[in-house]
Amino acid sequence: MDGEGLFVNNQYPYNAQRTQPDSTTQADSLYPPPTQTYQNPAPYGTRGPGGGYNPYGDLPTVQSPMAPQPPYRTVLPPLRDNGAGAALASLLLSLVSLVVSVVPVCGIIALLPALMGLIFGAMGLKSRRRTMATLGILLSAFAIALALTIVA
Length: 152
What we know:
Blueprint: E1 6-8, E2 12-14, H1 84-102, H2 111-124, H3 130-151
Antiparallel strand pairs: 1-2
Helix pairs in contact: 1-2, 1-3, 2-3
Protein backbone atom coordinates (compact mmCIF):
# COMPACT_ATOMS: atom_id res chain seq x y z
CA MET A 1 0.00 0.00 0.00
CA ASP A 2 1.32 3.35 -0.91
CA GLY A 3 0.22 6.67 0.68
CA GLU A 4 -2.88 7.09 -1.52
CA GLY A 5 -5.33 5.43 0.88
CA LEU A 6 -7.10 2.15 1.24
CA PHE A 7 -9.15 0.49 -1.43
CA VAL A 8 -12.54 -0.88 -0.48
CA ASN A 9 -13.53 -3.85 -2.60
CA ASN A 10 -10.55 -3.01 -4.81
CA GLN A 11 -12.57 -0.27 -6.52
CA TYR A 12 -13.21 2.81 -4.36
CA PRO A 13 -10.35 4.72 -2.74
CA TYR A 14 -10.76 5.65 0.90
CA ASN A 15 -8.53 8.19 2.58
CA ALA A 16 -8.76 8.30 6.36
CA GLN A 17 -6.91 11.64 6.63
CA ARG A 18 -9.42 13.67 4.59
CA THR A 19 -12.21 14.84 6.99
CA GLN A 20 -13.64 17.82 5.08
CA PRO A 21 -15.73 17.14 1.97
CA ASP A 22 -14.76 18.75 -1.28
CA SER A 23 -16.11 22.30 -1.44
CA THR A 24 -16.35 22.25 -5.19
CA THR A 25 -19.30 19.99 -5.94
CA GLN A 26 -21.77 20.10 -8.76
CA ALA A 27 -24.75 20.37 -6.33
CA ASP A 28 -23.87 23.99 -5.54
CA SER A 29 -24.51 25.05 -9.10
CA LEU A 30 -27.92 23.29 -9.36
CA TYR A 31 -29.95 25.76 -7.26
CA PRO A 32 -29.79 29.55 -7.64
CA PRO A 33 -29.45 31.70 -4.52
CA PRO A 34 -32.75 32.79 -2.86
CA THR A 35 -34.25 36.07 -4.09
CA GLN A 36 -36.22 37.03 -0.97
CA THR A 37 -36.10 36.34 2.73
CA TYR A 38 -38.50 33.86 4.31
CA GLN A 39 -40.39 34.73 7.48
CA ASN A 40 -41.35 31.90 9.77
CA PRO A 41 -45.10 31.75 10.50
CA ALA A 42 -46.40 31.92 14.04
CA PRO A 43 -45.71 28.65 15.81
CA TYR A 44 -48.53 26.21 16.39
CA GLY A 45 -50.33 26.82 19.67
CA THR A 46 -49.62 30.52 20.09
CA ARG A 47 -51.50 32.60 22.56
CA GLY A 48 -54.68 33.98 21.07
CA PRO A 49 -56.50 37.24 21.72
CA GLY A 50 -56.97 37.80 25.45
CA GLY A 51 -53.85 35.83 26.35
CA GLY A 52 -55.48 32.34 26.46
CA TYR A 53 -53.86 29.30 24.88
CA ASN A 54 -55.34 28.77 21.42
CA PRO A 55 -54.08 25.68 19.56
CA TYR A 56 -55.77 26.87 16.36
CA GLY A 57 -53.92 30.18 16.02
CA ASP A 58 -56.25 33.09 15.37
CA LEU A 59 -59.53 31.14 15.33
CA PRO A 60 -62.02 31.99 18.10
CA THR A 61 -62.27 29.64 21.06
CA VAL A 62 -66.02 30.10 21.66
CA GLN A 63 -68.06 26.89 21.57
CA SER A 64 -71.67 26.71 20.50
CA PRO A 65 -74.06 25.70 23.28
CA MET A 66 -75.01 22.02 23.42
CA ALA A 67 -78.48 21.03 22.35
CA PRO A 68 -80.52 19.25 25.04
CA GLN A 69 -80.35 15.49 24.68
CA PRO A 70 -83.48 13.33 24.78
CA PRO A 71 -83.74 10.99 27.77
CA TYR A 72 -82.37 7.49 27.34
CA ARG A 73 -85.05 4.88 26.80
CA THR A 74 -84.41 1.19 26.81
CA VAL A 75 -85.94 -0.69 23.91
CA LEU A 76 -87.10 -4.12 24.86
CA PRO A 77 -87.10 -6.83 22.22
CA PRO A 78 -90.53 -8.11 21.24
CA LEU A 79 -91.74 -11.06 23.25
CA ARG A 80 -91.53 -14.33 21.39
CA ASP A 81 -94.47 -16.62 21.56
CA ASN A 82 -92.96 -19.92 20.49
CA GLY A 83 -96.16 -21.93 20.29
CA ALA A 84 -98.49 -19.35 18.70
CA GLY A 85 -97.89 -20.62 15.18
CA ALA A 86 -98.39 -24.20 16.27
CA ALA A 87 -101.73 -23.33 17.89
CA LEU A 88 -102.92 -21.63 14.72
CA ALA A 89 -101.74 -24.56 12.56
CA SER A 90 -103.56 -26.96 14.85
CA LEU A 91 -106.84 -25.09 14.49
CA LEU A 92 -106.55 -24.77 10.71
CA LEU A 93 -105.58 -28.42 10.19
CA SER A 94 -108.41 -29.59 12.43
CA LEU A 95 -110.92 -27.51 10.45
CA VAL A 96 -109.62 -28.96 7.16
CA SER A 97 -109.77 -32.50 8.50
CA LEU A 98 -113.27 -31.91 9.87
CA VAL A 99 -114.53 -30.78 6.45
CA VAL A 100 -112.78 -33.63 4.60
CA SER A 101 -113.93 -36.29 7.08
CA VAL A 102 -117.61 -35.59 6.27
CA VAL A 103 -117.11 -36.59 2.63
CA PRO A 104 -117.71 -40.36 2.46
CA VAL A 105 -115.09 -41.16 -0.19
CA CYS A 106 -112.32 -38.96 1.28
CA GLY A 107 -112.85 -39.78 4.96
CA ILE A 108 -109.63 -41.76 5.36
CA ILE A 109 -107.61 -38.87 3.86
CA ALA A 110 -108.80 -36.67 6.77
CA LEU A 111 -106.75 -38.73 9.23
CA LEU A 112 -103.41 -37.18 8.20
CA PRO A 113 -104.35 -33.50 8.82
CA ALA A 114 -106.19 -34.50 11.98
CA LEU A 115 -103.12 -36.27 13.40
CA MET A 116 -100.96 -33.28 12.45
CA GLY A 117 -103.54 -31.01 14.15
CA LEU A 118 -103.21 -33.08 17.34
CA ILE A 119 -99.41 -32.80 17.30
CA PHE A 120 -99.41 -29.04 16.62
CA GLY A 121 -102.11 -28.55 19.26
CA ALA A 122 -99.93 -30.26 21.88
CA MET A 123 -97.04 -27.99 20.89
CA GLY A 124 -99.28 -24.90 21.03
CA LEU A 125 -100.43 -25.56 24.58
CA LYS A 126 -97.27 -23.82 25.85
CA SER A 127 -98.15 -20.53 24.17
CA ARG A 128 -100.40 -17.60 25.03
CA ARG A 129 -102.87 -18.95 22.47
CA ARG A 130 -103.66 -21.91 24.65
CA THR A 131 -107.39 -21.72 23.91
CA MET A 132 -106.80 -21.92 20.16
CA ALA A 133 -104.56 -24.98 20.67
CA THR A 134 -107.15 -26.66 22.89
CA LEU A 135 -109.88 -26.02 20.31
CA GLY A 136 -107.62 -27.47 17.59
CA ILE A 137 -107.03 -30.63 19.66
CA LEU A 138 -110.75 -31.11 20.31
CA LEU A 139 -111.72 -30.56 16.66
CA SER A 140 -108.94 -32.92 15.47
CA ALA A 141 -110.13 -35.64 17.85
CA PHE A 142 -113.71 -35.14 16.65
CA ALA A 143 -112.56 -35.28 12.98
CA ILE A 144 -110.68 -38.54 13.62
CA ALA A 145 -113.72 -40.09 15.30
CA LEU A 146 -116.02 -38.89 12.51
CA ALA A 147 -113.71 -40.18 9.75
CA LEU A 148 -113.37 -43.60 11.39
CA THR A 149 -117.15 -43.95 11.85
CA ILE A 150 -117.89 -42.96 8.25
CA VAL A 151 -115.23 -45.28 6.79
CA ALA A 152 -116.10 -48.24 9.00
